[in-house]
Amino acid sequence: MSEVRLTVGERSYTVGCAAGQEQRIEYLGGLVDAKLKAMGGNLTSNEAKNLLFAALMLADEADEARTKGGTAAPSPAPAGSSLDSDAVAGKLERLATAFENAASALEGRSQAS
After folding, report:
1. CA of 29: how far to CAs of 8, 11, 109, 110, in Å?
2. Which among 24, 34, 35, 97 is most buried, taking Cβ atoms within 10 Å?
3. Based on the number of CB atoms within 10 Å of its own CB, is 85 exposed (0-12), middle (13-18) or buried (19 or more)?
């Protein structure tokens, strides 16, 4: 098991992953961070909600990509890699679920305070 340090929404997180998956986790974390930055003025003071909205937007994009059956022009894959859009969509959905769970946990903690 490896650990990766991510910065998402100006906060740092350490997450565990399988050995060899570090770059992939960093890439996915970068997608979430980019989505938060794209939200710009729509961010709230509630960090959990911001992460939830970013996760929902990513899940929506993954679902659209899957339901369109690859009719949209795919993003170029990094050099030397093959892109399995179904696998990426599945991983994004799992990531969205993880963020939803984290958002729920954070909201529960902030309401208890």
Report:
1. 7, 12, 23, 24
2. 35
3. middle
Count CA within 13 A, CB hemisphere, residue 112: 6
Confidence at residue 101, expressed as pLDDT on a 0 to 100 scale: 72
CA atoms within 13 A on the CB side of 105: 6
The model's pTM: 0.58
Nearest-angstrom CA–CA distance, 92 and 55:
8
Residues 6+ apart with CB under 8 A from 34: none
The pLDDT value recorded for residue 26 is 93
